[in-house]
């Protein structure tokens, strides 16, 4: 540019840019700044060469090192899985009743079972397994279908009253709304409410109706029958509640609790981990009833 000149005060060349009579001096950039700037350019070029950088349609350019964060995570997961593989195999091969004799295996099964429980079971049975109306508490020693580790595993593997698994546990209480009159049901409700207080299940007017309609499943002693999933009615533990209204509904309509099967969904070792976890929650029994 033609109007560059040497500034008389500083002795520096001007750029020729003038604003309002103020001229810009063409001072050189500081050395350190300039070299840092070149260094960042070199760094960027090297980085683009070595690491994933330019976004493409589905991924990014790979970089000559072939590194990726995703690959790192996959490798770590593979390592953990490889470390756990023998334990899962042992879990599948050890008879259920012998797992407790191998503390390492049991510890692994309980931890894995707890994690599986949180993901798959807690929405129905509660995060602490304490259950809710219609969903049994798995912490107590009241069992509908049995509390030995083998019975628990069977229940988890095949589920209850579902149509997905032909081996599901199955027994159905009929609704008595059409079979019994309202008066009879009201009499039964008071009778059933009094059972936990020690009333003889077969005595009195309620006892007669009970003997004729209910004892076949719940037993003459009203203590239930696990082969049918019929609950003990004398223990003050109510799956569906014991208010008048609840009991009228339960007896008139017949309860129909459904539990999904998990064997096909999760796999046998996972079922065993869950059974070990549930069995260890407090209500687990040593042997199957009748053994
Ligand atoms: C969709 C809800 C639902 C889910 C999810 C569910 N359950 Fe259940 N479970 C039930 C119901 C309902 C019953 C009671 C069925 C009955 O009344 O006979 C039950 C019963 C059981 C029993 C038998 C209890 C007894 O007293 O004999 C066990 C054990 C059990 N569940 C474990 C599990 C485990 C372990 C999981 C997770 C893998 C799970 N459940 C997931 C609904 C569920
Ligand atoms: C065919 C067998 C069968 C007969 C007969 C039967 N029950 Fe049941 N009962 C069951 C089963 C199985 C359950 C559990 C169902 C479930 O959890 O879904 C049950 C559950 C109940 C419950 C719920 C208990 C709770 O903890 O909330 C009550 C109450 C009950 N029965 C009362 C009766 C009365 C009263 C009669 C007679 C009028 C009767 N049952 C007849 C099988 C039977």
Automatic annotation (TrEMBL):
Taxon lineage: Bacteria, Pseudomonadati, Pseudomonadota, Alphaproteobacteria, Rhodobacterales
Name the record gives this protein: Cbb3-type cytochrome c oxidase subunit
Record text on subunit structure and interactions: Component of the cbb3-type cytochrome c oxidase.
Predominant localisation class: membrane
Cofactor(s) this protein cannot do without: heme c
Summary of the function given for this chain in its UniProt record: C-type cytochrome. Part of the cbb3-type cytochrome c oxidase complex.
Annotated localization: Cell inner membrane
Transmembrane segments: 32-50
Domain Cytochrome c: 108-196, 201-282
Cofactor binding note of this UniProt entry: Binds 2 heme C groups per subunit.
Keywords per UniProt: Cell inner membrane, Cell membrane, Electron transport, Heme, Hydrogen ion transport, Ion transport, Iron, Membrane, Metal-binding, Oxidoreductase, Repeat, Respiratory chain, Transmembrane, Transmembrane helix, Transport
Domain of life: Bacteria
Family in the record: Belongs to the CcoP / FixP family.
Pathway(s) annotated for this protein in UniProt: Energy metabolism; oxidative phosphorylation
């Amino acid at each position: 540019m033609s109007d560059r000149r040497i500034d008389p005060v500083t002795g520096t060349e001007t750029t020729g840019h003038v604003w309002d009579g103020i001229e810009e001096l063409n001072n050189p950039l500081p050395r350190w700044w300039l070299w840092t700037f070149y260094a960042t350019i070199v760094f960027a070029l090297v980085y683009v060469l070595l690491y994933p950088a330019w976004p493409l349609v589905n991924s990014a350019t790979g970089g000559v090192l072939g590194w990726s964060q995703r690959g790192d995570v996959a490798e770590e997961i593979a390592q953990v899985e490889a470390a756990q593989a023998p334990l899962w195999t042992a879990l599948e091969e050890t008879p259920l009743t012998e797992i407790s004799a191998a503390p390492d295996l049991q510890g692994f099964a309980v931890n894995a079972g707890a994690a599986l429980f949180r993901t798959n079971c807690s929405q129905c049975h509660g995060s602490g397994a304490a259950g809710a109306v219609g969903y049994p508490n798995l912490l107590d020693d009241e069992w509908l279908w049995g509390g030995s580790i083998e019975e628990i595993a069977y229940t988890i593997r095949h589920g209850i009253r579902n149509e997905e698994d032909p081996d599901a546990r199955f027994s159905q209480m009929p609704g008595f709304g059409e079979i019994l009159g309202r008066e009879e049901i009201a009499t039964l409700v008071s009778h059933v409410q009094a059972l936990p207080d020690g009333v003889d299940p077969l005595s009195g007017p309620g006892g007669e109706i009970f003997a004729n309609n209910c004892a076949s499943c719940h037993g003459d002693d009203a203590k239930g029958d696990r082969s049918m999933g019929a609950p003990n009615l004398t223990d003050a533990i109510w799956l569906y509640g014991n208010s008048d209204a609840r009991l009228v509904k339960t007896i008139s309509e017949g309860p129909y609790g459904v539990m999904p099967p998990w064997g096909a969904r999760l796999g046998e070792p996972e079922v065993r981990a869950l059974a070990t976890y549930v069995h260890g929650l407090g209500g687990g029994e040593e042997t199957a009833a009748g053994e």
